[in-house]
Amino acid sequence: MRLPFRKMGIFSFRRNKDKKKDAIGVPWGPSYPNGENGLDAKSRAPLFPPTRFSARLIAELPSNVLERIFVAVCPQSQDESYETCEQSALEDGCMLCDLRDLAHCVQVCKQWRAAARKLLYHSIRIDPVHYCAREAYLAELRKRRTKFDRNGEPEDTPSARLKLLCRTLRDDPTRLGARVRYFKTPYMLREAAQADLARTIAVLPNLLYVDLPEGLFSDDSAYATLRLEVEARCPKLLKMTYRGGAERSLAKLARGTIWRHLEVLELIKINMDPNVLRHVLAALPNLHALKVTDSRAFNDDVFAYNEMLPPFPALEQLVLTKTPNVTAAGLVDYLSYPETRAALTVLALNKTGIEIPTLHEVVSLATSLKSLVVQCRVDGPFKSGPQTQRLSSRSLETLRYEISSDPQASPYSGITQTYYTYLASSILANGLTNLRAVYVLDAEFADQLSGLPPPPPRASFAQHGRPSSAGSGLSKSPHGNLLAPNITGGNGGLQPPMRPFAPSGAPASNRFSSNNPFAGTGSLTHTLEVFAKKDEAMNWSFVKVSPTAQLGPVPSRYSMVPGALQSERPISSYGLGADMLGNGWNTAGARRSVMVGNGIGGFTALPQDAPPPMPNGLQAGGDSWPRPVSSAGEKRGDRDMWR
């Protein structure tokens, strides 16, 4: 029976109150942005409406298939990298919304609960904010303390999330705490919430990686309790960092009582006796990567053979930054053992005591080297001698070769040009047969590989081009994109000459039998990607140099995955990717071109092909099988103030 007083408007105040809630955007209201571009999920029809048959199929899916589906819902649940919370963040979605979707999957049924909980507590990360439109509404709601207090101070959301996580894990440490392997927190949270962080770590016995405050790495007395908690409760950690002042804690590793399973060790401003350091490294049988930064005590004695000391361990990745007392002689001693030559695949030399003329001694011995980083400042031109040889390696695939002049040197001296000429001659002499990508700080490096001299400065009498002369070595052609080789054979100083009319892939000439690194060379025999920029502050340009001409269209380098440019960048699998990439190589705005052979020993510049059309209206750079966007929100752009 209908109530007659409903028509009289007695309960109209109730409906008006609900309309006000909807107007402010409460989570259950229709104006709350659940989808992309602020659209409500209920107002959008699903692309594939569910049916009874589809529901029955989903109920019969095995656990391993469900886990793969849940990984697509929340990709960061499988983050097993040794990078911090800031460095391992995803770029194409809201991680908090993805985590919420995975938590909703746990509540569907018992079958989904067992499969989703494995991922939900495998790799935990606490993000400070939502990277979508939801954060603006949530921040507004957090400030509404009471009906009359609409400008209250917002709470510390990351700290509140850590407290809730700590309560959940401590309530069930056997089934939930034992599942956690990776635990990542933002910088401000791990620096301020030491007590909550210690209480959470205490119930995580199988933890492999955790973000810790910087004071703990330098033996700060304020973090003594947290350090003892980590040493006692987390014996299976795989990565640890020691900063200046923590030499005593580093020496404790030699006893073999704590963290024997370390795979990555990072030493920053550590001044320790090389003999003690040898004992520390020998006590870590699973050590695969070592990074040493800003240390003068780390010298050649660490690698030298000594019958009274254990040998230096065979590493897969070795990163040396600002270690001026490490020379080529020390690395030659280290690579004299067969096990070290077979193990080392990544080597980074950033501002060390190794000079470029002696670099070939190290590269020739590292028979398994895949990625090499060389970064140094020079104050003089390349000094070649009777012992100087070209770089030679059959295993090297990626080379980052950044040579910059000293700030006190004249910017017009051009002393770095001789170093890049040395590298170009090594490549053209087929010394680096397996090299596929090279990163340089020279905008004209691709021209050196093509056999073209660097363009001279524009004169005042030039009319839309430089004057033609016999010394220019360039023949005029009616086609503007034809780049002919240097027919005259002039090398223009130290420029490696190209043989005129040499067939593609021809071996290097034996005309010069000396060890001169700038002697005559042949042509390029394999495709090479050249990433070049003028200085560290500029965007890099991409050039693909190919030895042979292609009759069909150039294969497109557009991809369906995020990050359309799929290049062989030097990436570390032990959390040292920033040292391999360097500064500025991952920036946008790249200029790209492709160079292929013209049949007479030169190269022809071809126009870049257009990206392939995307099916179903997808944009370039998007996923062909995109993740669910029910709560992903807008992608982060230039307005993101948290990154």
UniProtKB/TrEMBL annotation:
<dbReference type="Pfam" id="PF12937">
    <property type="entry name" value="F-box-like"/>
</dbReference>
<feature type="region of interest" description="Disordered">
    <location>
        <begin position="451"/>
        <end position="494"/>
    </location>
</feature>
<feature type="region of interest" description="Disordered">
    <location>
        <begin position="607"/>
        <end position="643"/>
    </location>
</feature>
<dbReference type="InterPro" id="IPR032675">
    <property type="entry name" value="LRR_dom_sf"/>
</dbReference>
<feature type="compositionally biased region" description="Basic and acidic residues">
    <location>
        <begin position="633"/>
        <end position="643"/>
    </location>
</feature>
<dbReference type="InterPro" id="IPR001810">
    <property type="entry name" value="F-box_dom"/>
</dbReference>
<feature type="domain" description="F-box">
    <location>
        <begin position="58"/>
        <end position="125"/>
    </location>
</feature>
<protein>
    <recommendedName>
        <fullName>F-box domain-containing protein</fullName>
    </recommendedName>
</protein>
